């Protein structure tokens, strides 16, 4: 059998690449990950995956198109990034949803409208599993089974760190070296390597280098997210793009028992997308359109809310609990969210507003024909008769380092480019957060999982075309 394709990383980008190679093209793969388990940050994604002009949208009478999705993405990118990559992301988004539904029997039958989107296009499945966990566990299950039954076709090497890539004098990939958990070095002969190693949001060293103003913020990233792939690709001559563009997510959940913790659970954007609001602790009132882009919401918290602890309150009604029960049950189990009456919330969180006035504000939010902050979607998730005894779900949130938009620049075939904008080496590809150019200055919610599927599958198809030659 031919030398395998080496895939570095087992988040969704790596899993999508591997599944496309194995299921569709019968091409052998080796997945290598320095972590002890599969999934990366993808497994924690909690809002869903974007798709424009999908059958689910059509069934719910939602008019969307790749062009509208592209416009939203370009607007969010603020002049940075690569528009051809954004165009591909948008045009291939419905194909990504169809692939997950068709190949893996994932429902992805519910929709939410997240910040910066013109319409509801972020898909998740009805059921108990969060979208990232559901997608990752489903895609990894197939590969694990193949690794057991056909070890020549699929090999999964965990607790192993890639240390170098061999590139020949004629600029072609020749092999990979990695170190296992016992410190032993191994070599794999290969003509194809796909970097799917994630971002660098956990690395204080890289934050100091590219965005020193963010070093002291907490993060949602796992400890494995240290930019190994970016560093390696930069060393071998890749063009790095937008490395200083680092997304701060506005709603990291504050644990009252450990307020200073450097790592936070993420409050899913779907909580706001489905009607949750943000209150300023200084006034007890809303202060921003909660469905604008993440950078704008973050800036509003940092400029308008108390600067001593950089926080706001995330408030949701029973209607959200009925839709996102599993998310909220988990947050409440972790004591990050509480269910209380409006009256108790005012007392316990020392809000400078009466329960009656807060009830009036929530009523206005739920019923006014035009939102005070021009929020595009007003949802009656607080009920029809709001009073001091109405129960709400409330938790403290603070901005957190969440996603690194920059990385090694790729083209629409997922090839890694050199500083002249040409393919760096034959057989060298990247997909997911390790790459750069797809999101520009700000990533839209729901586009991280999508990026992984679109460009992971693209890398696989590009490699398969070379195999056939």
What labels would you give this structure?
single chain; 469 residues; alpha/beta; FAD/NAD(P)-binding domain; Flavocytochrome C3, Chain A, domain 1; 2 domains; 6-stranded antiparallel sheet; 5-stranded parallel sheet; 15 helices; 20 strands; 34% helix; 19% strand; FMN binding; FAD-oxidoreductase_2; Fumarate reductase; flavoprotein; Succ_DH/fumarate_Rdtase_cat_sf
Describe this structure in words.
With 469 residues, the chain is α/β, with parallel strands linked by helices. It folds into two domains: 5-200 and 405-468, 3-Layer(bba) Sandwich (FAD/NAD(P)-binding domain), CATH 3.50.50; 247-400, Succinate dehydrogenase/fumarate reductase flavoprotein, catalytic domain (Flavocytochrome C3, Chain A, domain 1). It is built from 15 helices and 20 strands. Strands 12, 13, 14, 15, 16 and 17 form a six-stranded antiparallel β-sheet that branches. The chain has a five-stranded parallel β-sheet with strand order 6-2-1-10-19. The chain has a three-stranded antiparallel β-sheet with strand order 3-5-4. Helix 1 crosses helix 6, helix 1 packs parallel to helix 15 (447-468) and helix 3 runs antiparallel to helix 4 (83-91). The radius of gyration is 22 Å and the shape is elongated. The model has no long low-confidence stretch (mean pLDDT 96).
């Amino acid at each position: 059998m031919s030398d395998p394709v080496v895939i570095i990383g087992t988040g969704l980008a790596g899993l999508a690449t591997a599944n496309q190679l194995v299921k569709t093209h019968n091409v052998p793969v080796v997945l290598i990950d320095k972590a002890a388990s599969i999934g990366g940050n993808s497994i924690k994604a909690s809002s869903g995956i974007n798709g424009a002009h999908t059958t689910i949208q059509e069934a719910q009478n939602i008019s969307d198109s790749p062009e509208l999705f592209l416009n939203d993405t370009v607007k969010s990118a603020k002049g940075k990034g690569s528009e051809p990559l954004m165009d591909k992301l948008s045009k291939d988004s419905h194909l990504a949803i169809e692939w997950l539904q068709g190949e893996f029997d994932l429902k992805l039958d519910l929709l939410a409208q997240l910040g910066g989107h013109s319409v509801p296009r972020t898909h998740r499945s009805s059921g108990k599993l969060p979208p990232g966990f559901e997608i990752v566990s489903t895609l990894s299950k197939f590969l694990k089974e193949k690794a057991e039954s056909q070890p020549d076709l699929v090999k999964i090497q965990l607790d192993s760190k890639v240390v170098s890539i061999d590139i020949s004098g004629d600029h072609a990939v020749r092999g990979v070296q990695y170190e296992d958990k016992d410190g032993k070095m191994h070599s794999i002969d290969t003509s194809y390597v796909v970097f799917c190693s994630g971002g660098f949001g956990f690395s204080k060293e890289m934050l100091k280098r590219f965005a020193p103003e963010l070093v002291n913020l907490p993060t949602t990233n796992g400890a494995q997210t240290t930019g190994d792939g970016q560093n390696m690709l930069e060393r071998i001559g890749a063009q790095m793009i937008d490395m200083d563009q680092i997304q701060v997510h506005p709603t990291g959940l504050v644990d009252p028992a450990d307020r200073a913790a450097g790592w936070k659970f993420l409050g899913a954007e779907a909580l706001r997308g489905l009607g949750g609001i943000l209150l300023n602790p200084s006034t007890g009132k809303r202060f921003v359109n909660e469905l604008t882009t993440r950078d704008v919401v973050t800036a509003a918290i940092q400029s308008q809310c108390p600067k001593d602890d950089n926080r706001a309150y995330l408030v949701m009604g029973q209607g959200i609990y009925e839709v996102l029960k599993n998310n909220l049950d988990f947050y409440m189990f972790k004591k990050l969210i509480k269910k209380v009456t409006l009256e108790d919330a005012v007392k316990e969180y020392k809000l400078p507003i009466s329960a009656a006035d807060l009830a009036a504000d929530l009523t206005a939010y739920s019923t006014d024909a035009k939102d005070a902050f021009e929020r595009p979607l007003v949802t009656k998730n607080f009920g029809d008769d709001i009073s001091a005894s109405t129960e709400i779900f409330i938790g403290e949130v603070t901005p957190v380092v969440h996603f690194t938009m920059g990385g090694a620049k790729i083209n629409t075939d997922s090839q890694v480019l050199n500083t002249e904008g040409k393919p760096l080496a034959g057989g060298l590809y990247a997909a997911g957060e390790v790459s750069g150019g797809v999101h520009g200055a700000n990533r839209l919610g729901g586009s991280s999982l999508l990026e992984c599927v679109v460009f992971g599958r693209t890398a696989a198809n590009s490699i398969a075309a070379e195999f056939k030659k």
